[in-house]
Request: fold
Amino acid sequence: MSGESKARAAAARKAMEVARKRDRRQRHLFTGGIVGLVVLVVAGVVLALTLHKTGTAAAASEIPTSPATTAQGRTDPPPWAVPADTAGQVKAAGLPMLGVEGTVEHIHAHVDVVVNGQPVVVPAGIGIDEATGQLSPLHTHDTSGVIHVESPVKADFSLGQVLTEWQVSLSADHIGGLKVGNGEVLHAYVNGHLYQGDPAGIVLHAHDEIALVYGTSTQQANPPSSFAFPAGL
Reply:
């Protein structure tokens, strides 16, 4: 082999070695970048879970074991739409907003409101703030009248809390702007049985049927006494 050929071969070998070193550095940098990205993602997930757990625990501590037995809100006639300030009404009910539905206390009750023989819609979204993705441990998902109790701690919840979140005033002598008198009465029934006392103090139990019936004594006949809960509730 001539001297010129040897020189070209040596140059080619050197170029190949430089290329191999460059490839190794690039692979190392790429692998290191991937590992670093994975570490950052994992750290972010761990941090988010930690903050979520801390936030949930803090919110859970705000749930009273004994619920409010009054209901504060609007004093106008029905229908009553879901209030604009969800978080404010949940706070007025003595409850916190949660990032996720609780699972420790998980029951469902049903509420009927009947005025002069006609049903009043219990709206969807009571206790749920769509804008923030947060919700109360006491809320509604639809207009069926099913009340969802989904709490991270064991506690009692009352009809008064439901009505406060709904922003509808309730006591033994009125519901909203409907007052007793002049032949009109307000009765509350739990599973078909007349409830004595302020209906805001009714404590929710699994599969209770709670009916608030306003009207004449004749219109109190045959109040709702049961509800066919969907499978899984």
Summary: The chain has two domains: 1-61, 86-220. Residues 1-61 form one domain. The radius of gyration is 31 Å. Residues 98 and 226 are 30 Å apart (CA to CA).
